[in-house]
Specification:
D-Maltodextrin-Binding Protein, domain 2, ten-stranded mixed β-sheet, 14% strand, alpha/beta, 480 residues, two-stranded antiparallel sheet, 2 domains
């Protein structure tokens, strides 16, 4: 029986912690492990392949591939065309300039909001002073407002209208002279005389076209400090009616922003100080039928990978809390729900996963609890063992007295007193809860009772010896 108890104790002492630790490790693994999903291939456009926006799309493509979403990039004229392609699902996704019309684009859904892309106005250096004072100095000058089908064109036309400028048409001898040129054409042009007097471009920083015009042809950046005033135009009745009936720009989605000093040159500095401008927020949009899981993975790639750090300032997931320009995609709603600061149930991938984690975790905790309980009981058993050993020492000392000096009443009475104190000490600790285990206490008290009986018999014989009585030494078996 004692051998079985010892074996059981050894099993619980060494096997239990190993099993418990393994179960807890399984629970942690199930919680943090995301099973590999199926690879999804989607098409996406970011406008011109020569733009900074397209370079960002390539970074996003690499981040998305690590999450099982493969992106095939397609070239488009600009954001207006890209939105139309998403509407008809010629592409699944697009990085587009915000603020553009929802008109006839019922299938477009917003997946994520990114940084504000500033509008650049670049003019030939001989026009810089005049245009910096008044945009009306562009009267009669050739202006590239961006290609038709681009968000730049939509915003530029509205900006020039805000300044009181309109394109020259027919026999009217007033207004600016539209001179649309493609990005590739301007980058390939070596003769500045064949370039427009003024060029507008909406781009993430640094804009590749702006860099080329500044460094190769001496163009200068013009401040556009009226961003807030322009956005307030969205409150007019005329503007609200325009948004309701055509593909007008939503001025309320335009933000005042700045182009940092030295962005396009250090010697000389271009611009020499932070340059006020205005722009629209870059958006990731998707067709409403694109997989919500794929869109969710893309959003995770945007905010939880190196992609977020490429943009300055780094992207903050709280951008997803802003009111959307298009209705939210289902995948964006999933991302928002999972990132709410709620209890653990809201962050579980599924009920099955939650149950697996709970089962593994509870089983591990149970085993560890049993092991700790056994350790505690082992500690209590060790305490009782020391008390029993002290009782045994008293018996041994009594036996020595019996064999050496049978009549030594003082020694026997001292041992009896020590036994009484030992019993009282153990009982006090048991009552206070320091010692636990009724079975162990019963065994201890039985041992004390045997020792007391033995001492009592020796003390009685000691009294007789004082009266001259003779006796045979008690054998140990008489006490058992």
């Amino acid at each position: 029986m004692f051998a079985q108890a010892r074996l059981r104790g050894l099993v619980w002492r060494w096997l239990a912690p190993v099993v418990g630790a393994a179960a807890l490790a399984l629970a942690v693994y199930l919680y943090f492990h995301t099973p590999a999903g199926k690879t999804v291939r989607l098409t996406m456009t970011a406008g011109s392949l020569l733009s900074t926006r397209a370079e960002l799309a390539e970074v996003l493509r690499d981040a998305a591939a690590a999450r099982g979403v493969l992106l095939d990039l397609r070239e488009a004229v600009g954001s207006e065309q890209a939105l139309d392609w998403v509407e008809t699902r010629q592409v699944d996704l697009a990085l587009v300039q915000g603020g553009l019309s929802l008109h006839d684009r019922a299938n477009v859904r917003e997946a994520a909001a990114l940084q504000v892309e500033p509008l650049h106005l670049l003019v030939k250096k001989e026009l810089f002073e005049a245009v910096s004072k008044h945009l009306t100095a562009l009267e009669g000058k050739t202006v590239n407002p961006g290609e038709v089908g681009s968000g730049t064109h939509t915003l530029t036309v509205k900006i020039l209208e805000f300044a009181g400028l309109h394109p020259r048409a027919g026999d009217v001898d007033r207004g600016y002279i539209p001179m649309p040129m493609g990005r590739q054409q301007m980058l390939a042009e070596d003769n500045a005389a064949r370039l427009p007097d003024a060029v507008f471009v909406v781009s993430s920083l640094p804009a590749r076209l702006a860099q080329d015009l500044v460094t190769r042809h001496g163009y200068r950046l013009v401040p556009l400090p009226f961003g807030e005033a322009f956005a307030l135009g969205s409150l007019t009745d005329q503007e609200r009616q325009a948004r309701a009936h055509d593909q007008s720009l939503d001025k309320g989605r335009t933000f005042a922003t700045t182009i940092p000093a030295f962005t396009y040159g250090v010697e000389p500095p271009v611009p020499p100080e932070p340059l006020p401008s205005l722009g629209n927020r870059l958006l990731l949009v998707a067709h409403k039928d694109v997989s919500s899981q794929a869109v969710h993975e893309l959003i995770e790639a945007i905010y939880s990978s190196e992609f977020a750090k490429v943009i300055r300032p780094p992207l903050d997931p709280r951008l997803m809390e802003m009111p959307p320009e298009f209705p939210w995609h289902a995948g964006a709603l999933v991302y928002q729900e999972r990132n709410k600061p709620l209890v653990s149930g809201a962050v579980m991938d599924s009920t099955h996963k939650a149950l697996a984690i709970a089962a593994a975790g509870l089983s591990g905790l149970f085993v560890v609890w049993q092991w700790l309980k056994l350790r505690a009981e082992s500690g209590v058993g060790a305490e009782f063992k020391r008390y029993i050993q002290r009782v045994t020492r008293i018996e041994e000392q009594a036996l020595l007295v019996e064999r050496g000096r049978p009549g030594d009443l003082d020694g026997l009475l001292a041992l009896e007193g020590e036994l009484t104190r030992l019993k009282a000490e153990a009982l006090d600790r048991f009552v206070e809860g320091e010692l636990k285990g009724k079975e162990l206490m019963a065994a201890f008290l039985a041992h004390v009772a045997d020792a007391r009986d033995y001492l009592t018999r020796l003390i009685a014989l000691g009294h007789d010896s004082h009266l001259g009585a003779r006796h045979e030494p008690l054998r140990t078996c008489d006490r058992e």
